# Entry
Amino acid sequence: MSLDLKALFGGAQGPLVGLDISTSSVRLVELSEVGKDGLRLERYASEPLPRGAVADGNIENMEQVVEAVRRLVKKSGTRAKHVALGMPPASVITKKIVLPAGMTEGQLEVQVESEAAQYIPFALDEVSLDFDVIGPVANSTEDIEVMLAAARREKVDDRVAIAESAGLKASVMDIESYAARAALDRVTSQLPNAGAGQVIALFQIGAVSTQISVMLDGATIYEREQPFGGNSLTQDIVRTYGLAFEEAEARKKAGDLPENYQSDVLGPWLEGAALEVTRAIQFFFTSTPFTKIDQIFLAGGCALLPGLLEMIASRTRISSAVISPFKGMQLASGLRENALRSDAPAYLVACGLAMRRFDR
# Structure
C-alpha cells in the first residue's frame, strides 16, 4: 500500500479557498496576504443544506451537497479552483508517536505505516493515511514526535467528489478541529502577551453538537464533543408554534417569532445551553490536572443568539466573548462590517481552512 501523503496535511499552491461542509450549511472563505503578516478577507459566503444531507459528519445526499456548493461558489464570486476541505474530528484517528530522528522521508513513511497498523481498527488499504513531523522530543535529541492521522478512504473520497462535481479541486484535506484551532491561534495572538499562560476554552456550538477544545500556549490540552446544538432550539420552536422545521429555522434566524418566544422558548433553551457549558467545564476540571479557565470563546451558528453570551458568563463566572476569526484582518471593498459581525462566529473552520493557503 502506498501512503496517501498530503491527504490530510497537504500543502496548497496558488489561490485556495476554505470550504467547510457542516450539518446545516456549506461555508466558503477566501483570504489574501497584505504586507508581511497581514491578511485580507476577500470574500465569504454560506449556503444552507437541506436537512439530512449531512448527518454525523457523513455525506448522506451527495447531489444536494454538490448543488449547495455550486450555488455557494457562484454566490461568493470566487475564481479560485483549489479548495481546502475539513474532516470531522470523529472521522479521523490521530495519534502522536515517537520515532528515531534522522530518518529520510521514505524511511519515515515505512515506519509510520507499520506503527499505524497498531492504532487503526480497519485494514490499511481502506484508509487515507498521513503524518506530520512535530519536532524533537523534549529531553531527547535522538527522537522526534510525529502526528499520525488516518481516515476511512471512502469518507475522504466523498468530500473530494463533492469538490470535483462542483468544478473545484480538493488540494488540502485538514481536520475541522485543527482548522478551528489555527483560526483561534490567530485571534489569541492578539491578546495581551499573545495569550501566554492563558487556559482558553473554545465552544463551537453547531446544529447538532458542540465541539469543546481547551488550549494552553498553542497546544490542545483537552477535546470533547457533546450532543447539544441549535437544532434543539429549532425543534422547541416547531413544537411550540406548529411550524415546519425549515420555517422554524428561518424565523429563528430572522428573529421573527411571537412575543412569548423570549420567555417561553428561548429563555429555557439558554438555561440548558449554559448548563451544558458549565458541565463541560466541570468535566474538564475532573479529568485533567487543570483547575482554571481564563477565557471562554463561543463560535458556531448559535454563538450570537440573544442572551447566550451573558448567560454563560454569569453561570461560569469566566471572562467570555464571541469569537470573530476575521478580527484584525483588512476587508475587501465589497464587504459590510455589520453583516460580517453577525456572520463571523460561524466561519471559524472555513477561515482556518482558508489559512492553509499560507502554509510555508
